[in-house]
Each structure stands twice: as structure tokens, then as C-alpha cells.
Design brief:
This protein folds into 3 domains: 165 residues; 102 residues; 187 residues. Helix content is 9%, strand content 27%. It contains 7 helices and 37 strands. It has a 15-stranded parallel sheet. Strands 5-8-13 form a 3-stranded parallel sheet, with no helix packed on it. Strand 21, helix 3 and strand 22 form a beta-alpha-beta unit. It is elongated. It starts with a strand and ends in a 5-residue tail after the last helix.
Length: 490
């Protein structure tokens, strides 16, 4: 008898792998003390566990913390009972006991029929995280028959690109049984698993189809939910339903959404007494997005972190009338057609901003502009006698901005950076000056990096000021070194 004592299993790019765990009489699987299972890009893998491993005994994986399955195109289920000469005694439930399991992450499985004759029961009392992603054939936890799955401690749920899978069953109907992760017959005492999970979730990532006419109600109050990620939405109405139904929601991430404007729901639904506490907003790969309507929503104006990645058609982050006085982190990456980041009016409101990063925005000409979103110039509250002060800004990164001419080209704008310590200007080949006016950078800044990779850092500092140093970098073509370090062919 062999005792297996593995703790971590990491399987990656194994195109011929067909089994992770397979029953053999000489192997004592019940002694397995797994902590992490991570499986990625295994094209023949159809499941993770075979139920034959536990046909006579209870699997006890008390130390299992993470189960990750990613980009396995044939994955159909987590537990399989096919191709085995095994008879399951359904008079006593088959149990998988994973008391400290923290993550299940999957990606790709196929068509299976759920047998309704006596469910197999899986009890995972301390499972805290389930993540399924890019599983084109994945349909359920166990597809060889009816089953019950109990996860009373689950607080992290993510399902994306699993087009055959629903988290929960909808209202019972006479239609063909749908493939679901948590069957509705699964209960904890008299309370349905759906209610247990919804009430304990702290983090959730779902797609449009899960909330439009499906099993994840967007107007359900989840008191524990703190992080929400929504993908493939066609409009922004549902977003505001979530904001006003989840009192402790702090972080919102939107991915691959098709709408042009992020704005409040035009149709106000009945409220449930929730005051949104959103602090972080992340927008990723929203190629059609043209405008974030901060001016229409006080909730968005109070965010502390704004990260925008791959929003090609966005021309600026906010209209000139918007104040973002609570913002501490601003990151803009890969927004190809962005012309400028903010207006002078918005810049004046950023007294709490600590970190600003602008990276790989090909058409960006300046960071702060006097122009409004409509192309007109701002006339009010502009003048060198009242400089724009980034009082708390400690980190400024301007990287791979091929059209950037300056931080601000207006002769009317002066800037102060009293707290600035870390400044990177790399691969900005047209940046000849920092601004058209003088810049006060305070005593903490003593170098500007033009190559910022950890092993190849290079910097310079001339005449104790930003303007002279930026001019030196341009005149001596130091930006080429930054481009080479990032792999550009020159």
C-alpha cells in the first residue's frame, strides 16, 4: 500500500493528460493532504476526480485550499463516474469532505444528462471559493446523475465563459433540466443552498446572462458582498441595481461590456434603503465605451480608485465639470484614442490623488488639457496665479505614450507637486517639455527614470527641476533606451 503525501499539484500544458486522480487499490488516497491543485491547458482532461476513488470510503482533504482548472477544452465536470465498473450505493450518500477548500477555478467541459434517481451528496462544509472560467463544455460539478452540493461557507464565486452552466436553477418548470452548479434540491436544513450562498458571498464575478432572466437576481440584497465583477453587459442599468441592493459593496469591475455610456439607470426601481459605499471602479476591455457619466451620479464621484484598461474609444476620463475629490489612485492603460486624461477643472479637484499611471495610450497628446470634452477651451478658474496643486501625489508614471507632447500645453496652467517622489517618463518620444509653464516639484523628487525595469533602471536629474530634466531626456534621445527596454524594434 502506497501513501501519497503530495501537497501542491501544478499541471500546465499537458495535451495528453486524461486523469488527475484515478483509483488504484494499492494507492491510499484517503491519506492525501492536498493544499493546492492548479490545472491549465490540458486538452484531453474531462474531469478532476473519479468517484471510484471514494466508492467505499470518504475522501478527506482537510488541507485543500485551492483547486484551479483553466483552459481545459474537454472538461465536463469536477467529479466523474464514467468508464468505471463501480456501483454507487445511493442509500448512503457518497461524501467528498473538503473542510478547508478555498478555491475551485475551472475553464472548459461537455453535454451530460443529470439522472434524477436518487442524488449523490457532496458535502464541502468549508469551501470558500469557486471560480470557473472559459469552460465551453463544463455543465456541472457531477454529471453522471442527480447530486446535491452543500457549500455553506462559500464566499467567493466566479463564473465566466462557461456558456452551458448556470449557478442556480430558475423557478421550477416542466422544461428540460438545466445544467447548474448548485442544484435547487441542495439544502442546508430548511434553507436552500441558493439563499445560503447569496447571503455569504463577499466576492462575485458573473456575466450578463446570469442576471438577465436567469438565476442570479440583481435586486437581491447581499449584505456580505464587497467585490462585484460583471462581464458582457449590453447596458449599464443592471449595474445600478446591484449598487443600490448591496450595502457593503466596495469594489466594482466591469469587463467586456458593449454599452457606450456608463450612466445611472433611467428607470428608478424601488429602493431597499441602501446607500452605496463604492470605493473602487475598474473598467476593462470596454471597447465601445465613450463616456463615464460622473456628472450624473454622486456615487461615482466618491470613488477612491479608478482603473481603466483597454477602453479604446474613451476620449477623456471625465467631463470638465466633474470633481473627483476622493480619488487616490488613477490608472489608465491601453486606451488608444484617449486625447487627454482630464480637464484643468477636474485636475484642480484631485487634492487626494496619490498615484497616477498612464501607459500605452497611442493618441494621447497631454495629461491635463484646457479643452472640454466638446472640444472647447475652459475659460473659468484658469490662471498661473492659482496653480494646480497635486498635493498628495507621490507616484507619476508616463510610459509608452508615443503622441504625448507634454503634461500640459497651456500657458495658463502652473503646477505644484509638493509630495512627488517617484517619477517615470519612458518611451515618450515626442515629449519635449513637461509643461508650458514652470513646475514646482518640491524637495522629495531627485531623479526621473527613463528606463524603469527593475534590472535596467536608468535615471537622470538636471538643475533640480522637472523641466530641464525632461528637455535633456528629449534632446539626448533617452526615450529610445526606454523603448528598447520594452522590446520595441527601432
Amino acid at each position: 500500500m502506497h501513501n501519497i503525501k503530495l501537497q501542491d499539484i501544478h499541471l500546465e500544458t499537458l495535451p495528453k493528460l486524461e486523469n488527475v486522480f484515478k483509483w488504484k487499490k494499492e494507492v491510499k488516497w484517503s491519506d492525501l493532504k492536498l493544499q493546492k491543485i492548479w490545472v491549465y491547458h490540458c486538452g484531453r482532461l474531462e474531469n478532476i476526480f473519479s468517484v471510484s476513488i471514494v466508492k467505499t470510503t470518504e475522501i478527506n482533504m482537510e488541507s485543500l485550499e485551492s483547486l484551479v482548472v483553466s483552459d481545459c477544452s474537454q472538461l465536463r465536470e469536477i467529479v466523474d463516474n464514467k468508464g468505471e465498473d463501480v456501483v454507487i450505493d445511493k442509500s448512503g450518500p457518497v461524501k467528498f469532505n473538503f473542510p478547508i477548500l478555498r478555491k475551485i477555478v475551472g475553464k472548459k467541459g461537455e453535454d451530460d444528462v443529470i439522472d434524477k434517481s436518487g442524488p449523490v451528496k457532496f458535502n464541502l462544509p468549508k469551501l470558500t471559493s469557486v471560480k470557473l472560467s472559459k469552460l465551453s463544455k463544463f455543465k456541472s460539478f457531477y454529471s453522471s446523475g442527480a447530486y446535491e452540493l452543500s457549500c455553506p461557507a462559500l464566499n467567493d464565486l466566479s463564473i465566466q465563459h462557461c456558456d452551458l452552466l448556470e449557478p442556480f436553477e430558475e423557478i421550477p418548470s416542466h422544461a428540460k433540466t438545466k445544467s447548474v452548479l448548485f442544484p435547487e434540491k441542495s439544502k442546508t436544513g430548511e434553507v436552500k443552498v441558493k439563499e445560503v450562498i447569496n447571503n455569504k458571498l463577499k466576492s462575485m464575478h458573473i456575466e450578463s446572462r446570469h442576471v438577465v432572466g436567469s438565476s442570479m437576481e440583481y435586486d437581491y440584497r447581499r449584505d456580505s458582498l464587497e467585490e462585484l465583477q460583471l462581464s458582457r453587459l449590453n447596458n449599464s442599468d443592471i449595474i445600478y441595481c446591484f449598487l443600490h441592493c448591496n450595502p457593503n459593496l466596495k469594489s466594482l469591475c466591469l469587463n467586456d461590456c458593449d454599452f457606450e455610456e456608463l450612466k445611472p439607470d433611467a428607470i428608478r426601481r424601488p429602493g431597499i434603503g441602501v446607500v452605496p459605499k463604492l470605493k473602487s471602479l475598474t473598467l476593462t476591455n470596454m471597447y465601445d465605451l465613450k463616456k463615464i457619466c460622473f456628472e450624473q451620479d454622486a456615487v461615482l464621484q466618491k470613488i477612491e480608485s479608478l482603473v481603466i484598461i483597454g477602453c479604446y474609444n474613451l476620449h477623456t476620463i471625465a467631463p470638465s465639470s466633474v470633481s473627483l475629490a476622493h480619488l487616490t489612485i488613477l490608472e489608465v492603460v491601453g486606451c488608444r484614442y484617449l486625447k487627454y486624461v482630464m480637464s484643468t477643472s477636474t485636475a484642480k479637484s484631485l487634492g487626494q490623488l496619490k498615484t497616477m499611471k498612464v501607459i500605452n495610450c497611442g493618441y494621447l497628446e497631454e495629461i491635463v488639457s484646457e479643452k472640454t470634452q466638446e472640444g472647447q477651451e475652459e475659460k473659468e478658474n484658469v490662471g498661473t496665479d492659482v496653480p494646480i496643486i497635486f498635493k498628495q501625489l507621490t507616484t507619476l508614471e508616463l510610459v509608452s505614450l508615443e503622441s504625448l507632447h507634454s503634461f500640459c500645453s497651456s500657458i495658463n496652467c502652473a503646477f505644484k507637486f509638493p509630495s512627488l517622489q517617484n517619477f517615470i517618463v519612458s518611451a515618450c518620444l515626442k515629449m519635449e517639455v513637461f509643461s508650458a509653464n514652470e513646475v514646482d516639484c518640491g524637495p522629495n523628487l531627485q531623479k526621473i527614470y527613463y528606463v524603469h525595469h527593475k534590472e535596467k533602471k536608468r535615471w537622470c536629474w538636471l538643475e533640480d527641476n522637472i523641466g530641464s530634466t525632461i528637455r535633456y531626456i528629449f534632446e539626448n534621445k533617452k526615450f529610445f533606451e526606454g523603448m528598447r527596454a520594452m522590446g520595441f524594434r527601432l
